[in-house]
User: Which sequence fits this backbone?
């Protein structure tokens, strides 16, 4: 397995993986395929807006996107989003590796202090992964997402870079 930033040339592989995530595992995501009529890599291919890809051989099996806030008063924060590891690659430490690589890259950005993310409260596996990576919940929004008629809470989590494990 190797991890690298995705480039525009990886868009087709990203689209295939992301559509799989939203169709086969919709219960883990706050977005639906209907929200993203033309899915594509959601970041800008820069140090402050990137998507990492985890590859086994030539196959993209996991992704994690990072977007730094651009507003003057919130530039010390960055959002992690669209994390997904295909079930065929689950249990191999790929999710943890994606998070650790993202934290390492984030530490290189001057003035960046914290990473935050949102996760469905029903996704206990992801919550355990984020917690083991140094994230802590700071808010819970009740009945935030409606998935097939079931209302699910969302947790917001934060990791201060000074406290994230290396």
Assistant:
């Amino acid at each position: 397995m190797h991890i690298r930033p995705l480039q525009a040339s990886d868009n087709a592989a990203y689209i295939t993986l992301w559509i799989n995530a939203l169709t086969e595992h919709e219960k883990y995501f706050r977005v639906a395929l209907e929200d993203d009529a033309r899915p594509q890599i959601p970041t800008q291919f820069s140090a402050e807006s990137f998507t990492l890809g985890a590859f086994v051989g030539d196959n993209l099996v996991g992704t994690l996107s990072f977007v730094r806030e651009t507003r003057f008063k919130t530039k010390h924060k960055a959002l992690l989003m669209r994390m997904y590891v295909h079930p065929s690659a689950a249990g191999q430490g790929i999710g943890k590796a994606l998070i650790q690589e993202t934290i390492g890259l984030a530490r290189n950005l001057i003035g960046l202090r914290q990473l935050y993310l949102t996760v469905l409260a029903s996704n206990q596996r992801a919550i355990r992964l984020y917690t083991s990576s140094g994230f802590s919940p700071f808010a819970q929004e009740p009945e935030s997402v409606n998935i097939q008629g079931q209302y699910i809470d969302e947790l917001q989590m934060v990791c201060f870079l000074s406290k994230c494990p290396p």
Notes: The mean pLDDT is 94. The longest helix spans residues 11-24. Helices lie at 11-24, 94-106, 124-132.
